[in-house]
Amino acid sequence: MGKPGMKSADIVTMALGSLGVHKLRSFLTMAGITIGVFSVIGVMTTISALRGQIETGLSFLGADVFQFSKYPTGIQVVGNNLDKYRKRRNLTFAEAQRYRQLMEGTADVIRMVAWKGGGTASYGGHQTDPNVQYGGTNEHFIVTNQFTIDTGRNLTAEDVDFGRPVAIIGQTLVRALFPSESPLGKVVKIAGHAYTVVGTFAPKGTMFGGDADEIAIVPVSRFLSDNGADGYSLNIATQAPSPLDYDETVDRAIMAMRIARRLRPGDENDFDIYSNESLVAAFAKVADTVSDGAFVVSAIALLAAGVGIMNIMLVSVTERTKEIGIRKSIGARRASILTQFLLESVALSLCGGVVGILLGIVTGDVLAVMMNASIVFPWGWTAAALVVCSAIGIGFGLYPAVQAAGLDPIDALRYE
Fold this sequence. Notes:
By secondary structure, the chain is of the alpha+beta class. The protein folds into two domains: 2-56 and 282-414, no CATH class; 89-270, no CATH class. Helix content is 56%, strand content 16%. Strands 1, 2, 3, 4, 5, 6, 7, 8, 9, 12, 13 and 14 form a twelve-stranded mixed beta sheet that branches. Strands 10-11 form a two-stranded antiparallel sheet. A hairpin with a 2-residue loop joins strand 3 and strand 4. Helix 2 packs parallel to helix 12 (334-370).
């Protein structure tokens, strides 16, 4: 009973030993498999690591909140014609106010906001970098954008009505401008305009690799007055009273926005609407497209690598014809020869696959960590890669193995 086991072990030892004879050739053959597996595992690891964080980050709107804007989100606009959106009229403060009036009794939480590109904040001898998120909004910002007041107070409707020069700042600004004193009541300059700090936000952390605490908001009416209303299009967010009322609220809101925008019944909507769910769905679509692209690239690379394995194995059969003849003449069976060459082919493929998996996981997780995402191990894709590599080794190594096993021992011994 022990002989068959020893024979199998000998076959494996001989197969691996044959690969070691031509190290450079084996390495180059494995490299094709490594590249193919690396491309798909690296992409899948990165996407898997980022998916949870990005989907959480995309949920920057509060529960049951939807938003109107001039443009689609950056995710949704991929592949679309931007000129179509640039030609749209801005959503103005007057339209936002009219929309709010029309929604009375349907939704009470309506936030309007306009953002200015990176600005600098200063106080006394202290100054921030020029990346402050500076925007104008109203009292509903903290609800619809999931911020919390840490000290002081929130903006009020009166602040907006009277255009008061007041501001709420994030913790990054607090640390930079007020390292040893309270910011409340102090006058700071933000993008060249003076505002009295009436509140601070609780820490928010990072989002998409950016600092969500590097933020300053002021009443939207004051913001537009200070920066020029013509250059800004407002984003208008609305929170439905409850999940059960969400769809009905959206329908009424679209009608109200059309009225506020003075669109005729046959006119196309000249605004976009999105929610957390639509943002997550849009990201998933982009992620799936990237995954499909990586799969196609890896499939092409693996096909080319498989052809390379077949070519190398055929060369090996030719080089070892006399060896095969000697083994057959002393009693080696066809099955043993076939198994040895198949094992060599599978070993080449699997070794290249394992290296590709390791490189892909390490690279993917490094990229994920750089974007503050958690490290993951893509078990499913790893298992699939090992199965595919085994299949490639068998599929492309079968013909050379059959050729080797079918050699006539007398002809093989005469081969020079």
